[in-house]
Amino acid sequence: MAERRNNEFAIETHHLTRRFGHVVAVDDLNLSISRGEVFGFLGPNGAGKSTTIRMLCGILRPSEGGGTVGGFDIVNEPEKIKRVIGYMSQSFGLYSDLTVEENLAFYSRLYLRDWSVAKQKREAIIETMGFGEYRDQLSAQLSGGWKQRLALACAVVHEPQILFLDEPTAGIDPVSRRVLWDILYDLSQNKGITLFVTTHYMEEAERCNKIGFIWRGRLVACDSPSVIKSRTMTDELLNLKCSDIQKAFELLSKAPDIIDVNIYGDELHIVVPQAREGAETVRRLMDGAGVAVHMLEPIAASIEDVFVSLSRRN
Ligand SMILES: Nc1ncnc2c1ncn2[C@@H]1O[C@H](COP(=O)(O)OP(=O)(O)OP(=O)(O)O)[C@@H](O)[C@H]1O
Ligand SMILES: [Mg+2]
């Protein structure tokens, strides 16, 4: 293992920038992520999340700026970084014609030179992640949730200090996602591993210690979920249930005193400058159009509201 350098941050970047031709995929990114933190990296498609991860893993050279991972320089010490990190890429490469155990054997041997240590770690993972009965099954035959779990196992079999996970739960069912997150929390809390996770699932973002929101390569918010919510959502939010959601949506979308309105199932989330006056405006509009108000109350913003608000605002 590479020695761990004294550095309070697991990950730090300074003016990290990457261009592809005219596209600035990552634009002047400054991040500091403490050891042991669960950091959620959010942003719409094409925002620059995977590009950031690739630079942090020492796979892609920055165009400008730089950073450290585990105390090692991402430009000059990529080989040392590879020894302290695990990386589960967006389309992680499991070998579909290898069994569960053979996949784990491959990845453990990639990082650990000593055969017996590799075998020991692999057995430990098979045990703790519950692969016992699937050991000899081809990975191609696993369900989506188990494939992701195996991909995670392959990324942590060498016990990295810092783990990069690029959309680890994309496309798997809610129960499998919970299971995967339980494993991630265990890695963070009991092994002290720093997690850098990208996700499009807002309830997962809500569970991170810190989240960064990237938009067109720029970091537009970075803090704990509660601080981001209170800082970003300086406006207030109302929840409306009514007799005609479509009509209400159309009316409110056009109303000048309403900042934003979004449909959530059979409810509308309405962003207003101030809850009490906003509620009066909404009631007046609904009365005027003959829409019955079943419920209208102020609610706390979720990370999803913040995500939508930041994306629209930018
Ligand atoms: N190798 C490349 N060559 C050219 N352009 C690239 C390359 N890799 C990424 N890009 C561009 O950089 C931008 C950021 O892409 P990136 O894959 O980092 O986004 P992302 O946030 O991971 O998106 P998603 O949520 O869809 O995974 C996009 O405009 C993308 O087209
Ligand atoms: Mg990506």
Note down, in words, how this protein is organized.
Strand 9 and strand 10 (218-223) form a beta hairpin. With 314 residues, the chain is α/β, with parallel strands linked by helices. The protein is globular. It has helices at 49-56, 78-84, 100-111, 115-128, 144-156, 174-191, 202-205, 225-232, 245-254, 275-289, 303-313; strands at residues 9-20, 23-34, 38-42, 64-69, 72-73, 85-88, 162-166, 194-198, 210-215, 218-223, 236-242, 260-264, 267-272, 293-299. Helix 8 (225-232) crosses helix 11 (303-313). Helices cover 38% and strands 28% of the residues. It comes from Candidatus Abyssobacteria bacterium SURF_17. GO terms for molecular function: ATP binding; ATP hydrolysis activity. InterPro entries: AAA+_ATPase (IPR003593), ABC_transporter-like_ATP-bd (IPR003439), ABC_transporter-like_CS (IPR017871), P-loop_NTPase (IPR027417).
Question: Any key phrases for this structure?
Answer:
314 residues; alpha/beta; Rossmann fold; Alpha-Beta Plaits; six-stranded mixed β-sheet; four-stranded antiparallel β-sheet; 14 strands; 28% strand; binds adenosine-5'-triphosphate; binds magnesium ion
Please render the helix and strand layout as text.
Elements: E1 9-20, E2 23-34, E3 38-42, H1 49-56, E4 64-69, E5 72-73, H2 78-84, E6 85-88, H3 100-111, H4 115-128, H5 144-156, E7 162-166, H6 174-191, E8 194-198, H7 202-205, E9 210-215, E10 218-223, H8 225-232, E11 236-242, H9 245-254, E12 260-264, E13 267-272, H10 275-289, E14 293-299, H11 303-313
Parallel strand pairs: 3-8, 3-9, 6-7, 7-8
Antiparallel strand pairs: 1-2, 1-4, 4-5, 9-10, 11-13, 11-14, 12-13
Helix pairs in contact: 3-4, 3-5, 8-11, 9-10
The structure holds adenosine-5'-triphosphate and magnesium ion (MG).
Residues 49-50, 90, 166 line the site of magnesium ion.
